[in-house]
Amino acid sequence: MTAVAEAPSKIGEVPSFTVTLRVLRHLPADDGELAERWDEFQVQAHGTDRVLDALHQVKWEQDGSLTFRRSCAHGVCGSDAMRINGRNRLACKTLLKDLDPSKPITVEPIKGLPVIKDLVVDMEPFFASYREIMPFLITTGNEPTRERLQSAEQRERFDDTTKCILCAACTSSCPVFWTDGQYFGPAAIVNAHRFIFDSRDEGGAQRLEILNDKEGVWRCRTTFNCTEACPRGIQVTKAIQEVKRAMITRAF
């Protein structure tokens, strides 16, 4: 359906238009399995509305059974990652006007993780890989009596990878992850990078040993899908390459 703008009723009011959402549903069937089907919904929206706003309108006004995750709605929690027009994005950060609303907007669950219902996937395999790289500061000796200090240069070494919000957009955009259920995935490697290059941490060698596994960093094929998908602009592929280099040189 073509998006047709309506004239504003008041001076300065932004005109609205009708947009079509084409949502890939996953609903329980009689045999207990999930049945896939595409449902289309027409919603009245403004160009500055987000895909999340349109999904809310569908759920609240048309079909309360539509299921998706969302929390902060400000691009911080990462819970509403989904495939929008074939690309991984956060629904709360994707404006309708940036998607050509004159054409149907397709919405699907992210790939590579088991679907629970509609747009909701089981995140446990993703978080299992995250936990395996020990995403916490590892130190030895007695607890310090003052803050562990580091220079601005030391902080800059890993600053980019501290931005991760664990939305799984990068990992579920990776072709290797789609086909290999054992691959750690970009997000786990990014979070390992955050600690490997932290001057205060003493567990870098352990993490490198974990990532040296056959399903670790060496499975990366450098397609840059992960970098393009990251809603926080993290240079994911670069971080993975730096971990590979540290693996070889043991310099970190």
Automatic annotation (TrEMBL):
Question: What EC class is this?
Answer: oxidoreductase
Q: What is its EC number?
A: 1.3.5.1
Keyword terms of this UniProt record: 2Fe-2S, 3Fe-4S, 4Fe-4S, Iron, Iron-sulfur, Metal-binding, Oxidoreductase, Tricarboxylic acid cycle
Query: Matching PROSITE patterns, A to Z?
Result: 2FE2S_FER_2 (PS51085), 4FE4S_FER_1 (PS00198), 4FE4S_FER_2 (PS51379)
Cofactors that this protein relies on: [2Fe-2S] cluster; [3Fe-4S] cluster; [4Fe-4S] cluster
Gene3D superfamilies referenced in this protein's UniProt entry, alphabetically: 3.10.20.30, Alpha-helical ferredoxin
Residues in a coiled coil are none
Q: Domain (4Fe-4S ferredoxin-type): give its ranges.
A: 154-176
Q: What is this protein called?
A: Fumarate reductase iron-sulfur subunit
Query: Which Gene Ontology MF annotations are present?
Result: succinate dehydrogenase (quinone) activity
Q: Please state every residue range assigned to the domain named 2Fe-2S ferredoxin-type.
A: 17-113
Look up the domain of life of the source: Bacteria
What protein family is recorded? Belongs to the succinate dehydrogenase/fumarate reductase iron-sulfur protein family.
For this chain's record, the cofactor binding note is: Binds 1 [2Fe-2S] cluster.
Query: Which organism encodes this protein?
Result: Cellulomonas alba
